[in-house]
Amino acid sequence: MHLFLTSSTDCTYATLPPDESKHCIRVLRMLSGDEIWVTSGDGVLCTARIVDPDPTACQVEITQRIPNYGAHPYHVHIAVAPTKNNARLEWFVEKAVEIGIDRITPLICQHSERISLNIDRLRKIALSAMKQSLQASIPQIDPPTPINKLLSEPIPPCPFICHCAEGERHTLNQLYTPGSDVLVLIGPEGDFSPDEITRCSQLGFRPVTLGDHRLRTETAALYALTALNILNNQ
C-alpha cells in the first residue's frame, strides 16, 4: 500500500492535504474504498479507507492504528558539518532517513565551509524519504548548530568523534554498545580544529576510524550511520 501524510491520526476520519490528495487521486487514480496507509509523522501508522476521493481534500476513514511503528529502544544522532555543495548534504539526509536515524544536526565548526542552510528544504527531503521508505516517524532535523552549543547538551552513553588528527582510535564495532543512545560527530573537509578535538575528548567523546580511505564528509556520515544500524540489528 501507499503511505500518505495527514495532519492528525487521532480521529476516526482524516483529510489528506491538497498535495497528498492530488497524488493519491489524480496520479495514483485511487478510488473510494481503496486502502492506504496514513501517518502524521509521530510514529503512529494507520490503515485507512478512502471515503471521499476529492483530489483537493481526500477524506479517509482510519480503520487501524499501530503506535510506535518501527520504534527502537535506542537513539541515533549524527552531527555533520554542512558540505560546500548543498546537494551532498541533501543526499545524506535522504539516505539517512531511508536507513533509519533519529536526529540530524548540521554542525558548525571552526573550519566549516558553509554556515547557512535551507532547513525547510532538508525537512521536506526527510519527509519524502520517510514516506518512500514506509516509516511513520520524521527524524529531528536541527537548524545549523555551533559545536559548542551542541556540546552543552547532555552527552549520550556512546559519544564518538571522527577526525584525522594523529592518535589511537578504534572502530565503531569495537567501541559501540548495541542498543545504546549514540552521537557521532563528523567534521568539515578541513577537519575539526585541535581545540574542538580537545574539548570533545574532555567531554568523553572517543575517536573512531571509518577505515583507511579518505571519505567525503557526507560519505563518512552515512558510513557511520550504516555501521550503527548494522550493529543494532545483528
Report the oligomer.
single chain
Radius of gyration: 20 Å
Average pLDDT number: 94
Helix tally?
7
Number of strands: 12
Q: What is the share of helical residues? A: 25-40%
How far apart the termini lie comes to 28 Å
Q: Supply the helix-strand structural class.
A: alpha/beta
The biggest beta sheet is recorded as:
7 strands, parallel
Detail the poorly predicted runs: none
Percent strand equals: 15-25%
**What would you call the shape?**
elongated
> What is the chain-wise order of helices and strands?
EEHEEEEHEHEEHEHEHEH
What would your notes on this structure say?
The structure is a single chain. The chain is an alpha/beta fold and 234 residues long. It has helices at 18-27, 86-99, 119-132, 147-151, 172-175, 194-202, 217-232; strands at 3-5, 13-15, 35-39, 45-52, 59-66, 76-80, 103-108, 140-141, 145-146, 158-162, 182-186, 206-207. Strands 6, 7, 8, 9, 10, 11 and 12 form a seven-stranded parallel sheet that branches. Strands 1-3-4-5-2 form a five-stranded mixed sheet, with helices on one face. Helix 2 (86-99) packs parallel to helix 7. The chain starts with a strand and ends with a helix. 33% of the residues are buried.
Give the helix/strand layout.
Blueprint: E1 3-5, E2 13-15, H1 18-27, E3 35-39, E4 45-52, E5 59-66, E6 76-80, H2 86-99, E7 103-108, H3 119-132, E8 140-141, E9 145-146, H4 147-151, E10 158-162, H5 172-175, E11 182-186, H6 194-202, E12 206-207, H7 217-232
Parallel strand pairs: 1-3, 6-7, 6-11, 7-8, 7-9, 10-11, 10-12
Antiparallel strand pairs: 2-5, 3-4, 4-5
